[in-house]
Amino acid sequence: MSGLRARRLAERRAERRRRTARGALAAAASAVVAVGTVVGLVSALDRDRAEADEARPTVSGSPSLRPLPAVPTPSPTSNSPSPSKSSKPKPKPKKTAPARPKPSSAPPAASGLYRYGGSQVLEWVRANRSDPRRPLIESRIANRPAAVWFADYAPATITARVRAVTSAGASAGQVPVLVPYAVPDRDCGGHSEGGAPDLDAYGDWIERFARGLGSREVIVILEPDALSQTECLSKSRQADRYEALAHAGRALKSANPRARVYYDAGHSAWNPPGTQAAHLRAAGAASAASSDGVFTNVSNFHRTSDEAAYARKVLAAMGGPSGLGAVIDTSRNGNGAPPDGEWCDPDGRTLGRPPTLRTGEPRIDAYLWVKLPGESDGCKGEPGTFTADYAYELAD
After folding, report:
1. Residue 377: active-site member
2. Which of 13, 100, 222, 324 is at a distance of 20 to 30 A from 27, taking alpha carbons?
3. Among this protein's residues, is 225 annotated catalytic?
């Protein structure tokens, strides 16, 4: 019996050792799983950060109009005002179903236009505080609101990049001005060639762009030169472009009924009003479902009075609702266009009227700085880049 008890005692001890070993292995396995989970979370956060970086507006290509080059530059910044403090608690509002925004025939009613914080001129001002040109450039150019261009074809990030600008504008209670510039065959293969690879891709891109518009007031300058410069397109390809732009306008207005969408009318020294009106009608610009009117003088120098008269003639020839209006780019037209027709950073030009949503002129909805003064056409600097000497000349 003693031998039997001894064997059973030995077996029980061996079983306890096996249980202890299994417990240790289980603990080790749990530790491995926990470490793997932490690593996975860190990797996911890193991916999220990378995607957030990609979502920021980046410097895009340099749109130019031939014979009037345009020069854009988006990069992200979102400046939201700090909430004001109140000594008395405010009563909680009653919950109501959100009302769907309705289209408006009146010009934007927000307090003013949004100044985008990531512009090249602001970046230059921040980096050159001791430059003797800085005070004039800052006060006369950098402190003015101007358009934000989206000229690169990047469908994966376009929605977030547009939303970053529109959200910042909404937080400030101001109206952003956005320029989608990615239609295929833009600039007829000139300085600003590029854009989407084909019209189907463009349709998808503009729909993604539209999803970033939010629900507040925003102005969209739809594809500069797309209707003024079509000589490189066959009749069938012109018709395809018209259809693509009509779709673009509808997509923008459908995504945000408070968005004000303006179509390309060139400028007063380009196409005759009747010719331009025919292009605009074909592209849906006479329909309130896709358009709020036309824009003129983008990146050019013609006087505001000439542009206003031309825009009214175009609108009259185009037909459509009486609420359709026009916006004019006044960024560099203070001295009018040069007599020799020079379009590439011509000497002797100066800033035009400051941007405003209240012009006091019939059917002229706004004066805008679509082309940011100081961004070169390609003669006084690289196309689309901010050139301090040129900015100083315009501001002086």
Report:
1. yes
2. 13
3. yes
